[in-house]
Amino acid sequence: MLERKIKVEYSHRVLFTKDAFSSLNTTVRDVLELNHDGRKPKVLVFIDDRVALANPKLADQVQSYAAAHSDALNLTAEPFILPGGEACKNEFRLVEQCWKAINEAGLDRHSYVFVIGGGAVLDLVCFAAATAHRGIRHIRFPTTTLSQGDGGVGVKNGVNYVGKKNWVGSFAVPYAVINDFAFLDTLPERERRNGIIEAIKVALIRDAAFFHELEGMGDALARLESPALERLIQRSAELHVEHISTGGDPFEMGSSRPLDFGHWAAHKLEQVSHFAVAHGEAVAIGMAVDLLYSVKRGILEAVTAERIISLIERIGFATYAPHLLKKNARGELTILAGLEEFREHLGGELTITLVPEIGRKIEVHEMDKELIVEAVKDLRERNGDKPLPFVQHLLAKT
User: Fold this and answer.
1) Contact yes or no for 77/101 (Cβ under 8 A)
2) Where do the structural domains in the chain lie, given as residue ranges?
């Protein structure tokens, strides 16, 4: 057997700015000039249609920016508008449209794909970029609190297939992630709130001091105040990049996904609700399930679980949705199928991240389904007949 080890180094750049496409802002230009020695690369831009609707001048601003900095980049076509939201990841034809646009623009491996949008559009377009020409450099411009602090700064791309989330995808380190806080100002309340939960998650498993800081900002976060949101996003993004770059398994070759605390139930809840429960809302509920489960297993103190769940609810998240109690033909809670799907997605044995104390994680390789059911029922009782106003629309669809 002939065996050689190959070492490949990546630079993972995350920048923070405001009004990135103002002609006076050189953030985009500076990033492009890092590796090009005066060359002018081709650029193709994709924009989430919901972002375009909320920012009607954005496409023009992109083109004006390219014209003002025409010595540094060659915008090959008008920005390409794509449908946004999780449903876009169910449409493989959209990946093919991206490939077609990349081909028609004449992009090569020294070119760039820019994608401006929420996490779903980032996943879709970056998957297309990562597979065209075996990989075209892509720069992400996340536009939601969820994508700026969490998914948008990661290295995973993908689309849904056979009813399973991110079943087709790739690992590809973005050339850069540019978090433009100006986009947050145009978000509806629900989307501004969604990303907060992933910051709580990463604080719980990596940084107790950050969790304490979030508790102190709880009221400001509940009011969705911009300074608090921007601080939360920046620290959350730092912790995610720190994990990717120092965790030893950036492409998930093992069977562990420590940043996915609360996600085994969340992913299934999204599917069961036909995505009426948004990702951040589902993660809040999934975390609550795992926190109460951990108390029942003797892993976590009840007072700590109550402290965490109370913060989640204080900021405006529900910790229960009626879809949790949907049953399959065998009379089993459908949500429990999320365990097997999680194991299958990882490849290998089931590995679930749990929190034994704030700022520390452990991994378990089995879950007691009866205790999960008990946790779900406790959450239903906790929420009673008066769910948080933020999720009353979910009950109306049940």
Assistant:
1) yes
2) 14-186, 189-396
